[in-house]
Amino acid sequence: MGTLRWLPLALAAPALVQAAQFATLDEAAKRAFPEATAWRDQLVQASADDMKALAALGGAAPRTSTWRALVALKGEQVLGVVVADGVVGKFELIDYAVAVGGDGRIRSVEVLNYRESHGYEIKLPAWRKQFVGKGAQAPLRIGDDIANISGATLSCTHVTDGVRHIVALLERLHASGRL
Amino acid sequence: MRSTRRAQALLGTLVDIEVQAPAGVAEPALALAFRRVAEVHAAMSFHEAGSDLRRIARASAGAVLHVAPDTHAVLALALRLEADSDGAFNPCCAAALVERGLLPRPDDAQPSAAASLAEGIELLDDAQLRLRRPVWIDLGGIAKGHAVDVAVQALRDAGVEAGVVNAGGDLRSFGPQPLTVQLRDPRQPGLARPVAEIGDMACATSAWLLAQPERRAAHLVGQGVEDNPPMSVTVFAPCCAVADALTKVVWLRGAAAAPLLRAWQAQALLWREQGEPVKLF
């Protein structure tokens, strides 16, 4: 049987940023293709025509035409590709990795990094300043736990759009022998 | 014990799972839990034409359909909650949500003719159901909670003894470690308040934020009884599907929902537009 203990309603504490680092691209790639024996680090590039085709799919426009990718190999055989992408939503900044098998099907969509805001905060210099100088060696530790926040209104629409665009791009690259 | 945390974009939100377990246990457990959440998503999304809910929406009166065991279990719980709440919990609101543009119009479906779930379907054994009338079912008010529950079950089955599953604020903790739940202040969404400490307990919130008045509970269908409307309703319950569903009942019924909360071993925190948060139990 569970327990519930109400806490005295204290003054609200700032939770300006909910941030978390979940995984690196390498880790996500290894989980998506555990059978891979080697990896090829590669940039995935969309031509102007590709970008037009992606825009025609609708959703938020891609922020870039070049993505970092890891190609999963088993001997000579290409098992699939894991592409790193980032999206900026109204409320969140999300880096994620989408793994696509040789059959063109999605193996996984894993979130790598996540920062949440409420839109207007992103525009505030003080909010942005806290990211200055923070790199992989100094991961964000501010309000490090979205694991215990309720009442969050987070939508992953932009991730869904991004995944759709990347899957379509990989198809085009395959079809034209560019990948 | 080692803590491992992973997130995937599922259920239209970020599903964040943290477990305390040795790596050899954590990895396969997390993989299983996310797979189960994805299954729930696929079966109970009104957006996806191949989902159980869309198959039901296409079916004619009298048809017998086989659905995923998850869908069957959620429909069974939804029928009970609908009856217990005198219809305040209403999973037949898909047509209204389509009108508001919150759900896609299913062009392949029969027009919905059932005003309640009980009018629309009859559950049969072996994950089957019979359609009484054409019905558009939206389980958006309960399926996310159910997905959290199945993720917890999957983690436990895989040998994990403690952890937290959080699907965009619908969360559940299990294991010996107490979890402090913080709640976003609907009036100042940049702030969060610690409200309760839970162990082996679920929690769900339905809210609109002052900063986005246009979104004012657009996802809730039904006539509320209050002049001073809620801004945020949080329900604590033993399982997350129940917590998720009861947030809608408390939203519409206010303090009158207290007996129902007790019947489901649940407690609630209600923040209205004016005044301090009120506890209901």
Q: Can you describe this structure?
A:
Chain A is α+β, with helices and mostly antiparallel strands. Chain A has a domain at 23-114 and 155-175. Chain A contains 4 helices and 9 strands, in the order E-E-E-H-E-H-E-E-E-E-H-E-H. In chain A, strands 3-8-7-6-5-4 form a 6-stranded antiparallel β-sheet, with helices on both faces. In chain A, strand 5 and strand 6 form a beta hairpin. In chain A, helix 2 (48-56) packs across helix 4. The model of chain A is unreliable at 118-148 (pLDDT under 50). Chain B has 3 domains: 1-46 and 141-177, ApbE-like domains (T-fold); 58-131, no CATH class; 178-280, no CATH class. Chain B is built from 8 helices and 13 strands. Chain B has helices at 23-44, 52-58, 69-84, 94-99, 117-120, 143-157, 240-253, 258-263; strands at residues 3-10, 13-20, 64-66, 121-124, 128-131, 162-167, 170-174, 179-184, 191-199, 201-207, 230-237, 267-272, 278-280. Chain B has an 8-stranded antiparallel β-sheet. In chain B, helix 1 packs antiparallel against helix 6 (143-157). The longest helix of chain B is centred in the first third of the chain and has 22 residues, at 23-44.
In percent, how helical is the residue content of chain A? 10-25%
Segments of chain B where pLDDT lies below 50 for 5+ residues?
none
Q: Main interface pair?
A: A-B, 47 and 57 residues
Could you tell me the number of beta strands of chain B? 13
Biggest sheet strand line-up of chain A: 3-8-7-6-5-4
- Number of DSSP strand runs of chain A: 9
How does the overall form of chain A come out from the CA principal axes?
A: globular
Approximately what portion of the residues of chain B adopt beta-strand conformation?
25-35%
Helix/strand/pairing class of chain B, anyone?
A: alpha+beta
